Amino acid sequence: MEIAEIQILQLFPDDLSRVIQPMSHRFYSVGIHPCQVDQNYQQRIEQLSSFAAFPWVVAIGEAGFDKRCSTNSDLQRLAFTEMAMLAEQIQKPLIIHCVKAWQEIIALHKSLRSSVPWMIHGFRGKPALAQSLLNQGFYLSHGDKFNPDSVRVTPLDRLCIETDESTVSIETLYYKIAFQKHVPVHVLLENANGLFRYLDIEQTFPCIDAHAHRSLIC
């Protein structure tokens, strides 16, 4: 079974003028990774804002918190808040990178009262954490190193699938996750990645790669 693929390709500020262009099988997210935040983050977010309204830009992010990197935590919080507000302003989903900062993300989700979906990308956590995030209204995106138990507790309408930086194909991941969910792959195709189902795409139920870093130039 050959499955049509739609990529949502992650772009950072330095990529924007070089790469971004409309393509039939590709859309984009734009953001600043928390480990790349610096004192000039506001200028970089202004740069992102000039691209964010393009119809082929469908999400803001990566944005978030990473306690492993050297970036000051206050700077991470300020940049994240700005990007969350941008996502709210243009009414597009927010794609979140989070490492060891779950309480911070949950607290900001509550305080900002966002009306747009917040998607945790590359989720590998345990099912208890998955359930807690789901209870707060988050979407969870699972990639090559997914936790099978967490996949099983994620409802299809809140489940996203991504390759991120993996060389494993998105089609392979759909089959692996369908197996864990005990559903036919066509059911997964019809129901997963719900926050991107508004995209104007011709194919019937394509597999949407919710977060990809691959193939920047092709």
What does this structure look like?
The protein has one domain: Alpha-Beta Barrel (TIM Barrel), CATH 3.20.20.140. Helices cover 36% and strands 20% of the residues. The chain has eight helices and eight strands. Helix 2 (41-52) packs parallel to helix 3 and helix 7 packs across helix 8 (185-191).
Topology:
Blueprint lengths: L4 E7 L4 H4 L6 E5 L10 H12 L4 E10 L6 H18 L3 E6 L2 H11 L5 E3 L6 H9 L3 E4 L5 H6 L5 E3 L8 H12 L3 H7 L15 E6 L6
Parallel strand pairs: 1-2, 1-8, 2-3, 3-4, 4-5, 5-6, 6-7
Question: Brief overview, please?
Answer:
With 218 residues, the protein is of the alpha/beta class.
Give the key terms.
8-stranded parallel β-sheet; 8 helices; single chain; alpha/beta; globular; 218 residues; TIM Barrel
Unreliable sequence segments: none
The main sheet orders its strands as 7-6-5-4-3-2-1-8
Helix segment count? Answer: 8
The proportion of strand residues reads 15-25%
Task: Write down the overall geometry.
Answer: globular
Distance between the termini: 24 Å
Class from secondary-structure proportions: alpha/beta
> Helix amount, in percent?
25-40%
Instruction: Indicate the CATH architecture.
Output: Alpha-Beta Barrel
> Can you tell me the CATH superfamily?
Metal-dependent hydrolases
**Helix and strand sequence:** EHEHEHEHEHEHEHHE
Rg from Cα = 16 Å
Total domain units: 1
CATH fold descriptor:
TIM Barrel
